[in-house]
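Re: the request from the purification team.
They wanted to know what the chain is likely to look like in 3D before they choose a buffer screen. I agreed to run a prediction and write the result into the notebook, where they can find it.
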Amino acid sequence: ATGYTWAAGVDTPEVVHWNGSEWLTATVPVTDAYLNSITMASANDGWAVGGYQNGSPLLLNWAGSAWHVVTSPITSGSLNAVSMLSSTDVWAVGYKAPSYPLILHWNGGLWTEVPAPAISGGVLNSISMISPTLGWAVGSKFISPWDGYDPLLFSWDGAQWTEVSSPITGFILNSVKMVSPREAWAVGGYNDSSKS
């Protein structure tokens, strides 16, 4: 493979990048944290997200020479995925305490929380944006100790996030990808404790 590629890890905040011939480690300005997702618009512009071990979200920005921490508007929770349309249009999803879906947006100068359906036990694991007015976020919502989890699907129309019903139950959705305004794919796994 050729080009400039980045990858981020969990458990400890590790970031590595491919420079066209080898993988190299990058310095991360935090130690008490983990990273779940990374997105790069170019070799000089990208974001990585995760959380601190103390239970607060972590946002890291790459501006071409170093990673640096950017303040989160939420002090309790974690971020699981990030999607970048441009340097002024970035989305991140996860959960906020005690357990509600969390959606953040970067406008080029500030991260803000975007209202999401307040679903108790909800967690968002992935987000895919195809334009500023169209995107999907997926995850799971806790039903009960007996019924486990059901999929969680949110749709963005440019103005608000809306929950969309799932055709399946007993599953956690881990990833989503939009390929056109009329086509999106999501994957996950079975997680219904009542049938285990």
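For the purification team: The chain is about 0% helix and 60% strand.
Please add any questions underneath this entry.
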